[in-house]
Design a protein that fits this description.
The chain is an alpha+beta fold.
Length: about 140
């Protein structure tokens, strides 16, 4: 299994602000220039899914496995012979709001998908979280 995490602590945004931005999937392309399309049909809840298309990429179905409002979201997507989990955790601390994103990849061809796709996603996590904080702080 391959894993990569990114954590930041900030006082610039509340858990409600970051959650509101994060759960408004259809608006992701507005603040994330790496996304061509993001579409959630229905509610942001466990068992539902959304479609996402990175710039110059294919449309991918992502399933919401676990959703705890203002706290936690675990997502799941598949590649041929590999599975990717994207875990988002929001915690209030004495130092500010702690935001942790972790990507896990499992499966026989996980090494291939990590090299082809997932390392780039992981490398962009810090910039994406910073952009989320910037945009969410204005909500």
């Amino acid at each position: 299994m391959w894993t990569k995490s990114y954590t930041i602590v900030t006082k610039e945004v509340t858990k409600e602000q970051i959650w509101k931005l994060f759960t408004d999937i259809n608006s992701w392309p507005v603040w994330n220039n790496q996304i061509e399309l993001a579409k959630l049909e229905g509610k942001f809840e466990a068992g539902n899914h959304y479609l996402i298309q990175p710039k110059n990429g294919r449309i991918v179905k992502v399933t919401l496995l676990k959703v705890e409002e203002n706290k936690h979201c675990l997502e799941f997507g598949t590649f041929p012979l590999a599975k990717m989990y994207y875990d988002h955790l929001i915690e209030e601390t004495a130092d500010g709001l702690k935001i942790t994103n972790t990507i896990y990849v499992k499966g026989i061809l996980s090494f291939l998908w990590v090299q082809l796709v997932v390392k780039k996603i992981a490398a962009e996590m810090p910039a994406h979280v910073q952009q989320q904080i910037k945009v969410a702080s204005k909500l």
